[in-house]
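#struct-queue
[09:14] JT: dropping the first one here, sequence first, then the structure tokens:
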Amino acid sequence: MTRNISDALQKKAVIELNENVIRRNEDIELIRKWLNQQPHLNANLDDQYILNFLRGCKFSLQKTKEKLDMFYTMKSLLPEFYKDRDPFRPEIQEILKLGLCLPLSHKETEPQVIFIRLSPEDPFKVKFADVMKVSLMILDIFLKEDDNFIISGQLGLVDFKNSTINHLLHLDLSVCKKAATCLNFAYPTRPKGCHFVNTPGYFNKIIDTVKLWLPEKFVKRVFIYSESNINNLYDTIPAKIIPKDSGGSGVTVKELTDYWKTKVESYRDWFIEDEKYCANESKRIGKHSTSSDLFGVEGSFRSLSID
């Protein structure tokens, strides 16, 4: 069974995602039948989970199949993101306490804003891959329980207030490429844009590299703000939902951090169970997928020339 949603959200799904309420269950069953016929996929066959991908692919059955295949393939090829996701593991607890990925409050039928901040502590104390792991855990919670997240899309708000040269040196190009590929090609998300504030002088070199891995339509949705035009940000993301200690008038970063730490911890059993859903490339009919095929980048930002 799938969840009931409000009339307003259903109307949005019909208009923007081509959702046909009468045919919806038939589409879900067609995808479930296809998944059962793929010997290399051990997939979550829950109605709601399949519906997430149908919505994210605007009910194109072919695109839904491709995205589901990629989703479970990523879970096998990227153990650094998808293995050992017990929220009480020390490395995950450390990142949850730092509050680096914090969804903000939102109104229904409006995009979900994800507030991303740099570690206020020495970035070398945490692995960037673990930061991505926790971020994807939070994204998975939205897939599990929030229809608006899929239907209305997402906005990123990235704050570089804590930026130091060590944050730059800590970034790993291979992990960045894997994360970008995963988010863009495996998840049924609808990214509406990414907004950057308090960026350092070297930021343009980073963003120019990242843009090479993103679809052109998303590159056009990247916005960078300075003190002179910060008010333009509030036309898209209201100041009232931005944390008060980050330039807005919403709840504090600590309040958000405590809430999401508890929320992620409450999903412990689900994360442990979810690990079994993945792809087994040895059973795939046809060409096997490999990490080098999908990502093909090594190195770090240490190799960039920073003025």
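[09:21] JT: and here's the second one, same format:
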Amino acid sequence: MLTAARLGAAALSAALLAGVAAGPALADSPSPGATTAAVPDGLYGKGDPTYDGVWRQSLALTALTAAKVTPADSAVGWLTGQQCEDGGWPSYRAAGAACDAKTEDSNATAVAIQALVALGGHQPAVDKGVQWLRANQNADGSWPYNPGNPGDANSTGLAVNALFAARTDPAGVARPGTGGAAGKNAFEGLARFQLGCTAPADQRGAFAYQPDPTGALAPNTLASAQAALAAAGGHLPVATSVHADASPKALACADGSAPATIPHAESGEAVGAYLGAQLAAGDEHLTLTTPGADPKPDYTATAWAALALIQSGHPEQATDAVDWLEGQGDTWTKNGTDAAATASLLMVSQAAHRSTADLTGKLTALGPVPKGGAAAAEATPVKKKGDGMGQFWLIVVGLLIGIGGGLLLSLQRKRNPNL
């Protein structure tokens, strides 16, 4: 009768194992026609990393660390391995490829610094990254995307975020100007993109991406949102207990004596007031307007605006925007398959003290199995590891059922030989 029991258990086990193996295999399969080109081990997300590898990896590591997840060594090692000897990061560098100083960029470097600060234990890499930012700052205090170009508000804001994360005072970061003249510091570089009292009232506090050829500034939604976190003195991840009951204070321009350039002490409140008004006018989200295309919701800008408002002590003014982002989460994150968007939404929810378990699990599933933390167990089935204990108990149950059935049949045959 043991033979029958073993056969029953083996059949049950085979069926269970087949079912367990099929699920992750289907989940890991790319959609028809999708590229599977060289996504490195340890990298979060399955898409082509050429333009956003360091960016999405840095956001993912920052968000997961804030969620008390200990990322896999391979994930951290991939990011540190992208750093060039001079301290900068490119958007992506293929394994074995040499560094090219022209392709290193301030955005990738800034978010990588913030991720390594959040992780802890990477001070030499952080210090080299800060030195790269110092060396590639423009004399006007700003940062360009790639070295040697005019600065922009987005890149300057991200660089200031990195300085704050690395506990480096932006007021003391200035590159000497031509002929040894004193250059502008990082706060002054950021201020050159912000619209002050000479602008129309409804544009004051906004940031332009760059001045136009005449030097005029026009409000830019994403530039305003990304620069706002720096203006508020923050960095990723946003974790602050500061809470002001009032709305952000709009820029005071009672008379013509107000300066055109907004002082740093007033910068965060001024852009917060501008963003708050834009959110209220746009059904609690910001809008992306591209020439030749219909306006559409700007998830990224809305997320940065919410983070900046929370950082500056105005979480109530960010509440509706956070609600909107969470309601649009599946669309923005492509049902949790876009690593950068999923990490960004997770950081917004963390800053707003919302439930984050689902987003943490989705983000964890996009990369290597973490070393520890609440999400480690959740990620295990996706990576086809850790199923052993569950399968073991299912096999035990099958064996017990088979043995019990065999013993029962044996007893019945003893009682009734004709069976």
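[09:30] RK: nice, looked through the second one.
[09:31] RK: Residues 1-24+400-419 form one domain.
[09:31] JT: good to know. The first strand starts at residue 287 and ends at 288.
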